[in-house]
Amino acid sequence: MRTGSAAPRAAAAAAAASAASATSALPATGVCMKTPGGIRRDPGAEPGAAALRGPRQRPILSRLTNNSRIVGLLAQLEKINAESSESDTARYVTSKILHLVQSQEKTRREMTAKGSTGMEILLSTLENTKDLQTTLNILSILVELVSAGGGRRVSFLVTKGGSQILLQLLMNASKESPPHEELMVQIHSILAKIGPKDKKFGVKARINGALNITLNLVKQNLQNHRLVLPCLQLLRVYSANSVNSVSLGKNGVVELMFKIIGPFSKKNSSIAFVTLETNARRAVDRGYVQVLLTIYVDWHRHDNRHRNMLIRKGILQSLKSVTNIKLGRKAFIDANGMKILYNTSQECLAVRTLDPLVNTSSLIMRKCFPKNRLPLPTIKSSFHFQLPVIPVTGPVAQLYSLPPEVDDVVDESDDNDDIDVEAENETENEDDLDQNFKNDDIETDINKLKPQQEPGRTIEDLKMYEHLFPELVDDFQDYDLISKEPKPFVFEGKVRGPIVVPTAGEETSGNSGSLRKVIVKENIPSRGDEGEKKSTFMDLAKEDIKDDRTLQQQPGDQNRTISSVHGLNNDIVKALDRITLQNIPSQTAPGFTAETKKDCSLPLTVLTCAKACPHMAACGNVLFEGRTVQLGKLCCTGVETEDDEDTESNSSVEQASVEVPDGPTLHDPDLYIEIVKNTKSVPEYSEVAYPDYFGHIPPPFKEPILERPYGVQRTKIAQDIERLIHQSDIIDRVVYDLDNPNYTIPEEGDILKFNSKFECGNLRKVIQIRKNEYDLILNSDINSNHYHQWFYFEVSGMRPGVAYRFNIINCEKSNSQFNYGMQPLMYSVQEALNGRPWWIRMGTDICYYKNHFSRSSVAAGGQKGKSYYTITFTVNFPHKDDVCYFAYHYPYTYSTLQMHLQKLESAHNPQQIYFRKDVLCETLSGNTCPLVTITAMPESNYYEHLCQFRNRPYVFLSARVHPGETNASWVMKGTLEYLMSNNPTAQSLRESYIFKIVPMLNPDGVINGNHRCSLSGEDLNRQWQNPNPDLHPTIYHAKGLLQYLAAVKRLPLVYCDYHGHSRKKNVFMYGCSIKETVWHTNDNATSCDVVEDTGYRTLPKILSHIAPAFCMSSCSFVVEKSKESTARVVVWREIGVQRSYTMESTLCGCDQGKYKGLQIGTRELEEMGAKFCVGLLRLKRLTSPLEYNLPSSLLDFENDLIDSSCKVTSPTTYVLDEDEPRFLEEVDYSAESNDELDIELAENVGDYEPSAQEEVLSDSELSRTYLP
Fold first, then answer.
1. Does some domain include residue 726?
2. Which of 118, 880, 995, 1229 has its CA 20 to 30 A from that of 490?
3. Who contacts 944 (Cβ-Cβ below 8 Å, separation ≥6)?
């Protein structure tokens, strides 16, 4: 705001005009002046300057460039200060400077540039001059500088001591009687601008006595609106300091405000707005809340042309300040404020320019909305699992020590007097606070940062893992290898065709066979026998895999039991004759035809049912009901298939030309059911979700990131506020409740029916709010009272053409990609039966915001006054009485993993691939945690071939430590399938490494629908430093494997833990670097002394070249204190693996590269898993170039990939206890703000997209692995 600058501008212009016509020029003496470029001399002092100027001489200053003119003027002003010259010259010089500043942006930049002394000269003159006009000129210059330059120039003025000088000037000016009006306007205007940037401003103003000066000035000039406005603005700045606020309140500022803020009248129209965050209690005690509301309604009714919007907003800002305290909120409710603001804001919706009023009203109403308790008996999980050992400390210990009579849903006082910082984050120094927050979490102790290999366990103790590494001792003498005769050993990394050798030993599990009809000899002993010879107290037998009966299934065998998907009517059952399956076994029953396309990229086989399933009709309206229902064939029985290239398929899937590779499919519904029967869940689930049974294929279309309609969030919030205003419209009927097993399901036809009693399901309670609106409450992680985010549930009984609104009301994260274009996933059974068996992104009017349900301090880690968040979305169902499933992300169950591993084991080519599936350990509930070993078979049992086999470096991979991050499992699926494929590059990769993979570190959490924890109620990725074998067995033994490898000097070349990220886009990595961590502490001297191999950057840089979804600029290699017990940091620090990573995959989509603007799907996630493998092969070639005989031009490729400047992106800053950085796309969750443009901040500045030249670096064989 530039109020009051018009008069000095006019004076300055007049002065400039008179100066231009003056015949006398300023002294042309040479003046040395410090400028950004160094010392420069006035050109007028140079020898021979007069001769060069020619016959017509002009005044010296007018002949200078703009840059030199301002320098010369400032030099003159500095000289005047030093010599205490006459005021006329100072007045003239300052008027010239003002003219330049007003007309030239370049001059304004020069004045505030780094190294410029212009500001000091001006402030020094201001401090010393006694001339009024000179003072006014300088104040006008300062107003111009800070008005046009934003926060940086204001901060620049503060750092030069401007606050103190201006406050002192205010003191001196106030001693005159009466004070000079123009001077007071100028001083108050500029102080109001610079005060918010000076952290000590409130204290300085109080010490200088400025508070009462400004307050008295307002009292004495109530009718002088030109003077009152800047004074009120400054009072607001003063009162940001609580001590000042109380002091002003005692001196009558509240009463004064209500003398100024009156009903609608023309005389007040010059007051732009009034807002004072001051003693709200005093305002409440005097009944001013009712007065403010009355005045606001009066302005709302009479300001028909909306010319006084700022005044109306000022009144709302005053209300907002008063309602920051509990008494103010109560007074607001008692004065019927909710209804008044709701009605006025609804009337403002039609005029877009009034949006600031709507948003501020919304914010006030949400703040005053009475806090509700979640309608639950307890926030602890509905399911209980008794732990073998109770932790001594931590949240789980507190949970167990809580007396049963304690109400853990709400506190005794849910509504405290503190301002909700999350909703009212108006701190102007937010960037500074954020930077401090980041730095607090970065580890600065060099000794802690240096990796120190710690054995942790004795060699004798680690011997328990010997049986899990048979590849290190197996001599393959009992295997029928093709080459028995010694031959020279020459290992070359060049990609060849697949190595063709006869069968190698493979455990006989009955699952032998593949599409290529490779038969494993049954007389070969199991490799598991070797492990049994080395029995220890922890020796775990290999998982007993039952014979795959489906291979020999006869058409008449109908004794198949599977579980429920409700509400499937006879029409759907009749539709089974046109069912299309994908990801089901490569063997089909008689009456089925199959078509497999070769040389493609996804492991999918399209099957078309050519035979009706009459036995299904016997199920009536219920399909898969319990374990006792007898079903006929669901098109899933299998015998060995033949490749029939001529088979026609009329399915929509086939028409979409989904390409599939020459390899096995991994989905087998019957096998899935058998595995589910052996999966142990705490609720003892007896049902199977239809999508898990039937399988998912990626849809043949792209799904763009959803554009968010303007105003959708405030519309949803307004509907929530209507619940309080129009309570009679609320149905409030429970339609699903895990805590009350006796609840009755409503029979009305227009009420939706819900279910989540299946693996990975998570839905605790559903309440019907309005006819087509439902509140959903998620279950806590077992043995926990929070971590609500993952959801997976079933809905049925819908009608088409109806917009159903779903509100998940107990989420806890402070932000979500649902605010930035992410949609929930939906799977329709009817669509699947019509040939479209896929999860699709679904939902409109999606937003994520803070709601009015209160979190108790027990659930919020001791913090009071915290609220839950709501995910809301609206769905129009395409079919009547369909059965649909909704999920946070593509579900991937534990049983799915076991099915995939069994299919991989039974279908792989044992002539090429060494594959083992062992049991790492048992989980708390008795499920097995699988451990997979994959490498290439040795070329022969000749010594040198065995040496090469045993000496391959290890790569250790893990995934799914957090159950809600299902995308990690899809990436792992892509990795596993690629490693087991017949691709020549995959064979080369197997010949280069031995892969040890734990594909699911938290099976119990996955099975039971947890979001983050295991059954111990703890985040397993915070247990790597000291895992408890009884509470965290998977982490204890996974770490044990790594410790064993370190003990036998076989440290993995790479460790990578796959994760998902809910608040960032793209795929990226976190690694560990001492140098970059120290660099981030801004201690550059220390970082220069650190010597570190930058090889940790190589793999992410490679991935940024070859993986479309990968974003290098989102990667970080900073080590934080809060992450010291995560897998990434512990494996780096304790085990000594330099390339130790967390790979994060977005839940939403990409904002760069090939997939920019698209939501991510399973195809892209699996592609990322495959590209990770390709990256490992390139890493091998870059780290061992001579061995691979690569061209010399590629020998320096790794150095080219690594940024020698050690650029550091934002660190993975600690957020609560998440594995996630602070999210940059911050929004106001209370209401959409229209005061400033709602711009989504760019997370990834400088995202990399490979150029055509860089693409040449791709190996020819790698191009064939590209997944579309």
1. yes
2. 995
3. 489
